[in-house]
Amino acid sequence: LLGDDGRLAATIFEEVTALAARTGAINLGQGYPDDDGPAFMAEAARRAILEGRNQYAPGAGIPELREAVAGHQRLHYGLEPDPETEVVVSTGATEAIAAAVLAFVSPGDEVLTFEPFYDSYGATIALAGGVHRTVPLRAPDFQPDPDRVAAAVTDRTRMIILNTPHNPTGAVFGPEVLARIVELAIRHDCIIVSDEVYEHLTFGVRHVPVASLPGAWDRTLTISSAGKTFSYTGWKIGWASGPAPLVAALRTVKQFLSYSSGPAFQPAVAEALALPLESFAGLARDLETKRDLLAGGLEEAGLDVYRPAGTYFILADVAPLGLADAAELARRMPAELGVAAIPVSAFCHADGARATRSLLRFAFCKRRDVLAEASRRLAGIA
Ligand code: PMP
Ligand code: GLN
User: Fold this and answer.
1) What is the 13 CA–ligand 2 centroid distance (Å)?
2) Which of 18, 71, 105, 179 is placed for a possible disulfide with 130 were both Cys, Cβ 3.0 to 4.6 Å?
3) How far is the CA of 311 from the centre of ligand 2 (A)?
4) Which CATH number fits domain 54-275: 3.40.50.300, 3.40.50.2300, 3.40.640.10, 3.30.390.10?
5) pLDDT tens per residue, range 303-318
6) What residue owns the CA closest to ligand 2's atom 1?
7) Cβ count near 201 (within 10 Å)
């Protein structure tokens, strides 16, 4: 995370995407789909721009979108946030995560995440002066060991950042482990920040928001984003919901990060979030077949593949090829093979980086012909 000079370095996503562009490689590194989301959303945004919705949106987000977020939480999970006080719209999930950490973490406070962890958690904990503790997720199932979680949560723990479905492992945390985490959070009076941006991208398992478990609501901020659910990552429309005091603190900090953004995108996302339940399954069904296509290609190339239960990322181990250093391979692959991927060690501190040294993350939210071509190229990896 920190460069050699001790400053925050360029993100791994920026780095790999630049390398893929420079070499003309197929970019299975940074997670973004190569097909945009539903056309009606682009149309709604275009209409909004032409209707003049181009000046600052309210800091907390436009009322239609806050209502749509509340309605979505009710329809899918039986949660009932009040759109007036318990929902906030953010500039992507990234801003909501940063605002939550900056709102609640003081210098020296401990924040627990699972490792590998999405890179912005480490960076924002560092910006807040927090102490970052981790519990490892390990192959083959990448589920947290409840005893290790229990050992890591203490009275010094201010916040637990959860991410399920999990980037980069694709693990979907089961209700038992979530219940254990809630119990620990209550015992040690911690806030839970639950990053659920992949909530609708699961394959054969159901996503359970931690906020829906008994005792969790009062201490949980649930975060999601239109980027993943609707395949509009660049719009950077995210949101958080939770009890009014936590949302109020998040809104306060958010005023001084972006204040607000995307006034013409917000109505389009509101329209999409209000779609009926069945409409949300299509993207996951499509992604599941893509997961299997790329998994097949990676297996044929001789890698050990961990087929994920959620997200659009797949982890593969290059050790069976006699290769040990996935980071070194990731730097060579774009030029030598024409495929870019991300080393899992980029999502880890030193110990975790050693344990995940031979793992690569591939994004499969790409067109079938692109995945087929990537598989063909990967056959040359050995
Ligand atoms: N959390 C996770 C786990 C992610 O993978 C991402 C990547 N999109 C984000 C947060 C950031 O989401 P957004 O683009 O909406 O800021
Ligand atoms: N979330 C995306 C990923 O994990 C990348 C987002 C970003 O580039 N910051 O690949």
Assistant:
1) 6
2) 105
3) 12
4) 3.40.640.10
5) 999 999 999 999 999 9
6) 31
7) 25
